Amino acid sequence: MGSRMGLIGCLIIVVAIVLQLSGATAETVYTVGDSLGWAVPPNTSYYSTWATTNLQTFLLGDSLEFNWTATHTVAEVSEADYNNCTKVSSVIASPFKFTPPTAGSYYIICTVDDHCEQGQKFSFTVNGSPAEPPTSSASSLSVGALFAIMATTFFLLSIYFSAYL
Ligand SMILES: *[C@@H]1O[C@H](CO)[C@@H](O)[C@H](O)[C@H]1NC(C)=O
Ligand SMILES: *[C@@H]1O[C@H](CO)[C@@H](O)[C@H](O)[C@H]1NC(C)=O
Ligand SMILES: *[C@@H]1O[C@H](CO)[C@@H](O)[C@H](O)[C@H]1NC(C)=O
Ligand SMILES: [Cu+2]
């Protein structure tokens, strides 16, 4: 009876470890605008459409990469400044990787000339509670470490079998 409870407990731990490892996802890096990069878009809805299409599942720990060749900036602004395309001082070299530090809404504009008015702007929401760690240490576990854990677990299981069954 006691041995069966121990065996079941051990199995539950194995399943939990395997589920956590398989469920761990690496951070995603999104290239803003895909092949267009960060530029004056062909129409004012280009980046809002891109963000809606691509950033629905943006999670804490994911990054945005801005690539550009002409003169542009990346500025994180308030919602009011985003709506008004208000210029703030911000000049950053390309490529620029931005990793939102917390969950919440973000407003990104280019502050050069009238680029923002022409649609070089987008907003998005980072999903995930700040209370949860943004990256899972399990995702950095090598395949070798996974097999080591599995092997150890099965070794322990075999001890249960030989000792009690
Ligand atoms: C942006 O830069 C990254 C890294 O240099 C590259 O992999 C990606 O293809 C570039 N994207 C564009 C749109 O140029
Ligand atoms: C904006 O431009 C993109 C890329 O050329 C195109 O796919 C999209 O249909 C355009 N949207 C509008 C509203 O014109
Ligand atoms: C809105 O933008 C205009 C033009 O950039 C600027 O003069 C004005 O101060 C802005 N208003 C607010 C409330 O930020
Ligand atoms: Cu610009």
From TrEMBL:
One of its GO terms (molecular function) is electron transfer activity. Residues 28-128 form the Phytocyanin domain. PROSITE patterns: PHYTOCYANIN (PS51485). The keyword Disulfide bond applies. PANTHER family: BLUE COPPER PROTEIN, UMECYANIN-LIKE. The keyword ATP-binding does not apply. Keywords: Disulfide bond, Glycoprotein, Membrane, Signal, Transmembrane, Transmembrane helix. It holds the Pfam family Cu_bind_like. GO terms for cellular component: plasma membrane. This is Phytocyanin domain-containing protein. Residues 1-26 form the signal peptide. The chain crosses the membrane at residues 143-163. It comes from Carpinus fangiana.
